Amino acid sequence: MTSKKLIVIGGGAAGFFCAMNAARLNPLLKVMIVEKSGNVLQKVKVSGGGRCNVTHACFDIDEMAKCYPRGERFVRKAFHQFFTTDTIEWFEGRGVALKTEDDGRMFPQSNNSQTIIDCLVKEMHDYKVELQLYHSVEKIEPIENGFNVSFKNGEMIHSDFVMIACGGFQKINQFEWLNNLDLKIETPVPSLFTFNYPKHPLNNLMGIAAPNASIKITGTKLSSEGPILITHWGLSGPAVLRLSAFAARDLEKLKYKFSVIVNWCAEFNEQSFVKQIHKQRKLFPAKKPSNGNFTGLAFRFWEFMLSESGIDDAKKWSDLTSISINKLAKNCCAYEMNAEGKTTFKEEFVSAGGIALSEIDANTMMSKKYPGLYFGGEILDVDGITGGYNFQHAWTSGFVAAKSIVKQSAE
Predict the structure, then answer these.
(1) How many helices (H) and strands (E) are present in the chain, helices listed first?
(2) Which of 23, 42, 45, 268 is a Cys-bridge partner for 31, taking CB atoms 3.0 to 4.6 Å apart?
(3) Is pLDDT of 136 > 60?
(4) pLDDT of residue 67
């Protein structure tokens, strides 16, 4: 019996996971990963500040699927074959224990992404997966018994199966090498980015976070809750990144000029905040507001809000006028800011867009037009919010593709 061949295009998380699992499940299958650069698993390396946010501790498929602004229904189907529990079990079965942090993110117990990389590379070697670096694909040509894969160096390799897992692209023209396949492609736009506020006085508080905040894009129903971090260029943190993902296409249309309303202490609204001030005035009339921070915000942040509201350090609670009280409530609970641009992180860039999901069978990751051609990871029009969701999609799509390829290879 002639052994069949699988070429995986892209040395990232989805590509590695497909290649290794396909080789493990069918030892007769010849598997090769081709990577256009000289490095593999680069996003794994830099993710989570170099710790690798492997997945998220969510064990309900419907709840997990809601964390994908694009691809919710698609991933829900795929998760029935390989979910977070399977990811944890897969890594732990290879000696890599994961830990869960308070916000649900899961990391290797070593706190080092190299642990994940070493595990994946060892698996690659154990199952004799071939790795070719500096191999940039120029064209994939479907033929009667598989595919001819042509490379920019002039080489051409025939393969029975092809898995495309080369990551997300930032521009539509980066998909040109797939033009001959006539696949529908959703135009890529950035997702998971921070909001820029050049020269805003709030930037002087860089490094300070509001742990329980909410943020809403004015004129829309789009909002998010969670920690917001002040940076030297604007706003970041989980709530901002999540909002940027769900609003990715809307904000691109606005050319990233938009306004937001921030509630820095989301346990209050303006009305309840005013009531709390009146309570402070009644209980502690001679006390200074600067020493009466009831918001949970950092002291420097509270000082900034008092200053923005025209309340100086000499004033006591009893000195506050209705105007200054209402202004403080608005600044703390409905602070309006006009964004001018965004900041993305090059190493961890995530895009909305890619191969349209209507082209792919979610149960196999195979192209509906070309049997034997598979897709996985960010090349698909699937993206998750921050917190390990994009890696979970990578593991899931890689495994589902591997399982289908192995089944096909045995036919």
Answers:
(1) 12, 22
(2) 23
(3) yes
(4) 97
Alpha helices per DSSP H over 334-388: none
149-199 confidence digits (pLDDT tens): 999 999 999 999 999 999 999 899 999 999 999 999 999 999 999 999 999
Q: What is the CATH number of the domain that holds 37?
A: 3.50.50.60
User: Residue 171 and residue 351: Cα distance in Å, rounded?
Assistant: 9
Cβ neighbors of 283 (< 8 A, separation 6 or more) are: none
- Tokens 């500096």 sit on residue: 134
Question: Are residues 99 and 234 located together in one domain of the fold?
Answer: no
* Residue in 246, 247, 209, 241 with CA at minimum distance from that of residue 228: 209
pTM of the predicted model, to two decimals? 0.91
Render 287-333 in DSSP notation, one character per residue: S-GGG---SS--HHHHHHHHHHTT--TT--GGG--HHHHHHHHHHHH
Same domain, 117 and 219: no
CA atoms within 13 A on the CB side of 411: 7
Whether residue 49 is found in the same domain as residue 81: yes
pLDDT of residue 3: 86
Ramachandran category for residue 52: left, alpha or beta (phi over 0 → left; psi -120 to 50 → alpha): left
Provide the terminal-to-terminal Cα distance of the chain, rounded to the nearest Å: 12
Looking at the fold, whether 204 and 77 belong to one and the same domain comes out as no
Same structural domain, 150 and 197 = no
All residues at 6 or more sequence positions from 340 whose CB lies less than 8 Å from its CB, including other chains: 196, 197, 198, 256, 257
Per-residue pLDDT, 295:
95
Alpha carbon distance 169, 379 (integer Å): 7
Structural domain for 396, as ranges: 5-190+348-409
CA distance linking residue 241 with residue 339, whole number of Å = 14
1, pLDDT greater than 50: no
Length of the chain: 411
Residues 238 and 314 grouped into a single domain: yes
Q: How many CB atoms lie within 10 A of CB 274?
A: 18
CB burial string 299-313: b at 16+ within 10 A, e below: eebbbbbbebbebee
The predicted-structure confidence for 312-362, as pLDDT tens digits, reads as follows 988 999 999 999 999 999 999 999 999 999 998 755 578 899 999 999 999
Phi first, then psi, for residue 192 (nearest 5°) are: 55, 70
The verdict on 277 and 301 lying in the same domain is yes
Total domain count, the chain: 2
